[in-house]
User: Which sequence fits this backbone?
């Protein structure tokens, strides 16, 4: 694995985590949206990650069982899934979106879950920055040794 491969893997991780953070922010922004263009309350969304390129296991690559790993490695958001779990029901007959029984259907967004996911995404983002900085540091040390 070359210097640029390491940077490419970290960059793909940064991009994926940034999109995950954008989705979480959208969920939090729509926590009280009771009516969407599709009808009904907003539905929570989640990013689904998948690997790019290498179909071999980490174990096979480390042991050298794979002659040439895929030239493109990393992670990507393969899908943005809607969470179809039930949302909150709140009795508020005065609300314009109340049903015949006076209940309002609110989104299935839980702020505690979203904040937990946001912390995890932030840690993933920071880990990719740390990996990128370590790669850069190793490259600079290699240049210094060559002098």
Assistant:
């Amino acid at each position: 694995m070359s210097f640029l491969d390491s940077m490419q893997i970290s960059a793909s991780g940064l991009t994926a985590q940034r999109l995950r953070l954008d989705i979480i922010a959208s969920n939090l922004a729509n926590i009280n949206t009771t009516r969407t263009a599709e009808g009904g309350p907003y539905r929570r969304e989640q990013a689904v990650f998948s690997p790019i390129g290498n179909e071999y296991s980490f174990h096979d690559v480390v042991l050298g069982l794979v002659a040439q790993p895929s030239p493109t490695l990393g992670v990507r958001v393969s899908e943005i899934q809607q969470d179809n779990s039930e949302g909150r029901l709140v009795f508020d007959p005065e609300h314009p979106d109340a049903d015949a029984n006076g209940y309002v259907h609110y989104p299935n967004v839980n702020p505690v879950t979203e904040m937990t996911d946001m912390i995890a995404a932030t840690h993933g983002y920071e880990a990719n920055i740390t990996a990128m900085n370590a790669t850069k540091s190793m490259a600079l040390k290699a240049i210094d040794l060559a002098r």
